[in-house]
Amino acid sequence: MKVLAVDTTSERESVALADDLVVRAEARVRAAGHSRQILSAVEFVLRSAGVAADEVDGYAVTMGPGSFTGVRVGLSTVQGLALASGKPCLGVSTLDVLAATIAGEAPTLVAMVDAARAGQVFAAVYDAEARPREEPRSEAAEAIVGRVEGALAVIGDGADRYRAEILSRRPDALFPPRDLYLAGALARLAVPRLAAGEGTAPGVLRPLYLRAADIRPGGP
Predict the structure, then answer these.
(1) I need a labelling partner for 18 at 20 to 30 A (CA). Which of 5, 35, 82, 148 fits?
(2) DSSP structure class, residue 53
């Protein structure tokens, strides 16, 4: 099964094409403006993999949390591609993808996305097999790890930003080194789920926002 995956939830924008569980091609861009580059990245990945657009069996996208604009761009791109092709698509939480990359590293896993607000992250707690233990929330990084008992591993750009704060509360916390360009991991995660029939129509996809957009009125 061929799945095209898109992640635009952070400045580490990526697109990947997986054939079953093998990533055939991937594009990575350090992006400030996602909408200017995402379609070019999709075209590059398909061409590099030698796969025509009509050969893609399904699409996957990170639905947040993350950059407010980035989430919208990723979702709308995948919705457009899936609508044009009549193929199913799958939305996956950014936190779920992060947790999956460190499955088995500790009895408890904590995925954190930088919330771009002083001291705050979007985070969720998982078991050793990356199954969610609680609903995702926006909170101080050190408060989240302070609630966790036993050994834990932490992942994500939020964990990187607030590493000192996390270690001040949990000096035993592990920080497994992982790639934060997520499209490849997303594609591998999505293949068995789409193959099992979990895909939806593009109009069903919805963003996962854990707080409202931080929009302020302009000056006079």
Answers:
(1) 35
(2) G
Whether 121 contacts 158, CB under 8 Å:
yes
What is the three-class DSSP state of 34? Answer: helix
Query: What is d(CA 67, CA 64) in angstroms, rounded to the nearest whole number?
Result: 8
Cα four-point dihedral sign 18, 24, 29, 35 = negative
The full set of domain ranges for the chain reads 2-94+180-204, 103-169
Residue from 155, 106, 141, 158 nearest 127 by CA? 106
Cis upstream peptide for 65 (omega within 30°): yes
Fold of 103-169: Nucleotidyltransferase; domain 5 (3.30.420)
Instruction: State mean pLDDT over 177-181.
Output: 95
Give 29-83 pLDDT, tens digit per residue.
Answer: 887 666 678 999 999 999 999 999 999 999 999 999 998 889 999 999 999 999 9
Closest CA to 6 of 88, 71, 52: 71
Whole-angstrom Cα distance, residue 220 to residue 217? 9
SS3 for 123? strand
Higher pLDDT, 211 or 113: 113
The domains spanning 2-94+180-204 and 103-169 adopt the same CATH topology: yes
Q: How far is CA 180 from the centre of its chain?
A: 9
